[in-house]
Automatic annotation (TrEMBL):
SUPFAM superfamilies documented for this protein: Nucleotide-diphospho-sugar transferases
Gene Ontology terms, MF aspect: hexosyltransferase activity
Top-level division of the source organism's lineage: Eukaryota
CDD domains (UniProt xref): beta3GnTL1_like
Domain Glycosyltransferase 2-like: 44-212
Protein name: Glycosyltransferase 2-like domain-containing protein
Skewed-composition ranges (Basic and acidic residues): 1-15, 24-34
Annotated region (Disordered), positions in chain: 1-34
Pfam families from the UniProt entry: Glycos_transf_2
Transmembrane segments: none
Organism placement in taxonomy: Eukaryota, Metazoa, Chordata, Craniata, Vertebrata
């Protein structure tokens, strides 16, 4: 029996992990091709792949069709696919290189995938672009994507740059797609605590390599780990900005095999609560939770003891909840148990954490907030 440990086997099974950079060639005045000295290219398209062969032809054709005139490379890392994904990518090498897009492909043959974070990190480490364009293998970039996001990123070197999307099949995740496409620049920052996840969604990310290196690698915990949200929050901690090109530059595919479905709501909930406490609640002396129902009470129970003490009231529009007068925190070890007042929103005071879902009240929530003349990011933050 071999004494080789699993990590050693994984390392041995990785193929072409550091292949030589294949860069664009330049033509001399005599007409002969000269190899360009090993250096960076303008943009590396970062593509982790796992069992994506049915989508790759559309995805790769869209890369060939880009109208960007700078230098590009495609960096693919195959995360133990069991289909012919690697073969499909290799079949496009000639077309890509004819378009002067250099191609780097590697991967591993371990018994199971190591996860999206691992594959992204590997694809980045073998690439050499000054800027990184993240591309999911099941999505399709529109011809102007790289050109417009590159131009935006040159101006915002320490930011994650996104874009608007077209969701397919049409009508899937309608509320989510509306949210992605209609957030204002201000809301890209203020709504980072909502259950939708990153306000600049991962399949649209474009950033400088220097910013990726500043933030640090993606979490490699594997299945069930929201590596995009973890990176997104870490980018904000480092002082990173957020921006969006307000054009539709990506066809964003919805399907049941998407890796996002492996992340549990509870995992996301905990990350959001922790980030809210770190970035917002730590700055407030006290606050009101807007929603005396299930979601508001759940938020309260998940807060640290210090932040629970800052909750001066719940507020609501439901007269039945308001008439109860108080919410008693039965799980508390304090004696007497904490009793938090339940008020009508009109007599409650800011700042608020809003635990009511957006676009689910027929505009009533938004009207109520507007009636109080509150400013998002100062007087309230959305949590749900």
């Amino acid at each position: 029996m071999s004494s080789e440990d699993p990590e050693q086997r994984d390392r041995r099974s990785e193929v072409d992990m550091n292949p030589p950079k294949r860069l664009r060639t330049a033509e001399s005045h005599t007409g002969t091709e000269l190899e360009v000295e090993k250096s960076t290219v303008d943009v590396s398209i970062i593509m982790p792949v796992y069992n994506a062969s049915c989508w790759l032809d559309e995805c790769l054709q869209a890369i060939v069709d880009q109208d960007f005139t700078g230098s590009m490379e495609l960096s693919v890392f195959d995360d133990a696919s069991t289909d012919d994904s690697r073969k499909v990518v290799e079949g496009w090498r000639e077309k890509l290189e004819a378009r002067l897009i250099s191609v780097v492909v590697s991967g591993h043959y371990s018994p199971k995938p190591r996860g999206v974070g691992f594959a992204k990190n590997k694809a980045i480490s073998q690439s050499c672009g000054q800027y990184l364009c993240f591309q999911d293998a099941d999505d399709i970039m529109l011809p102007q994507r790289i050109r417009l996001q590159y131009d935006a990123c040159v101006l915002h070197q320490n930011s994650l740059i996104g874009c608007r999307v077209q969701r397919v099949p049409e009508g899937s995740t309608e509320r989510y797609t509306h949210w992605i496409n209609t957030l204002s620049q201000h809301q890209l920052i203020t709504q980072v605590y909502t259950s939708h996840g990153p306000t600049v969604v991962m399949p649209t990310w474009f950033c400088s390599r220097k910013w990726y290196l500043k933030v640090g690698a993606f979490d490699e915990g594997g299945k069930g780990v929201p590596e995009d949200l973890l990176f997104f929050y870490q980018s904000l901690r480092q002082g990173g900005g957020l921006s969006r090109v307000d054009e539709c530059l990506l066809v964003y595919r919805y399907h049941e095999k998407a890796t996002t479905h492996s992340v549990t709501e509870e995992t996301i909930w905990k990350l959001r609560v922790d980030f809210l406490q770190e970035r917002v609640l730590s700055q407030w002396e006290n606050f009101t939770i807007w929603n005396a129902g299930k979601q508001g009470r759940k938020l309260y129970r998940c807060l640290s003891p210090t932040n629970q003490k800052k909750v001066k009231a719940f507020c609501d529009v439901d007269e039945n909840k308001i008439q109860k007068g108080f919410y008693t925190y039965e799980e508390s070890k304090e004696r007497p148990k904490p009793k938090i007042p339940i008020l009508h929103y009109k007599v409650a005071s800011a700042p608020f954490v809003i635990c009511v879902k957006l676009d689910m009240t027929g505009g009533i929530l938004e009207e109520n907030l507007n009636s109080l003349q509150l400013k998002e990011g100062i007087d309230f933050y959305h949590f749900n």
